[in-house]
Amino acid sequence: MSVCLFCKTEGIFRTREHIIPESLGNDIDILENVICEKCQNYFGTEIERPALEKTNLAFWRSYLGIRTKRNHLPFVNLDPPKRGAIPSFHPFTEFGVGFTAHEDGSTSMDVSNRWQKENLLRDKLRYILVFTPWHLSILGRFLGKVGLEFVALNDINFALSPEFDQIRNFVRFGLTKSLWPIYCGREGRTTDLKGPIMWDGVEGRQEIECYRYSLAKREKGGMVFAFSIGTDIMLLCLSSDLPDPDIEKCITGVKLSCLYYHDGTW
Question: Where is the HNH endonuclease domain (predicted)?
């Protein structure tokens, strides 16, 4: 008998959970038999899919050309859902825009209407994605899931402790009136992310950095999980759902800002 990491139901589980999705290049970090089938299916459709298709993760998948688990190059449309319990619309976000990765290592911006094309050309192809409460909810739940699974990979008993019950419930069941603070920053240049394509016959090969992550315990207590893709760095405290200015100083040399909508403001 096992206890599911997220819903804590007991049972015999025969699941293989990729901690970071295969669509981001992970085929190494895998949890076995500690997540029930119901939770695993839920995360795949309700958390991982929107995170990989509608947030900044979607852009970086396309820009970096990270292939899907079926070895397809990604193409995404970043329009968020039009309806739902959590607001997903912001007037400054460009709608009808997607990105497609190509075999030669390039990425194209796909625009569905003429008015949007004129705006993007006027702004020198600068695309704006505003993180609405919906985006932060999906990203927070995605990062919380991944972070807690890395804790379990190191120590399953610690991961099941009451310290993580708040993030566990947020990840699995979500909230419609509260968010989990995410601390974001940038590091590096996009030009350093992809090496040149090396041609071997008719097949092109290119080295890219898909992602980085770090799990650490703070001196003041509590676990933090950092995840980096492209030039974006996102950090989440797994032990507290309250904004903490000290967390903005967790990564040496990187300025982090807290992305958060306070309760009652959305």
Answer: 4-52
- Quick one: which of 108, 139, 106, 60 has its CA closest to 206? 106
How many residues are present in the chain? Answer: 266
Q: What is the pLDDT of residues 221-242, one digit of tens each?
A: 899 999 999 999 999 999 999 9
Task: Tell me the C-alpha distance between 170 and 148, whole Å.
Answer: 12
The rounded distance, in Å, linking the Cα atoms of 211 and 225 is: 13
- CA–CA separation, 29 and 153 (whole Å): 8
Q: 10 Å Cβ neighbour count for 162?
A: 7
Segment 119-154, tens digit of pLDDT: 666 766 677 889 999 999 999 999 999 999 999 999
Residue 95 and residue 140 in contact, taking contact as beta carbons nearer than 8 Å: no
Q: Say if CB 209 and CB 153 are below 8 A apart.
A: no
10 Å Cβ neighbour count for 183? 25
Coil, strand or helix at 34: coil
Q: In sequence order, what are the residues at sequence separation of 6 or more whose Cβ sits closer than 8 angstroms to the Cβ of residue 121?
A: none
Alpha carbon 225 to chain centroid, angstroms: 12
Q: List helix spans (H) across the chain.
A: 37-42, 49-54, 56-64, 114-122, 133-154, 156-159, 165-173
pTM over 0.85: yes
Question: Measured between alpha carbons, how far apart are the two ends of the chain, in Å?
Answer: 42
Per the structure block, which two tokens stand in for 150? 């890395």
Amino acid identity, residue 235? Answer: L
From residue 122, how far is each of 34, 64, 118, 125, 130 by CA, in Å?
A: 51, 25, 6, 7, 19
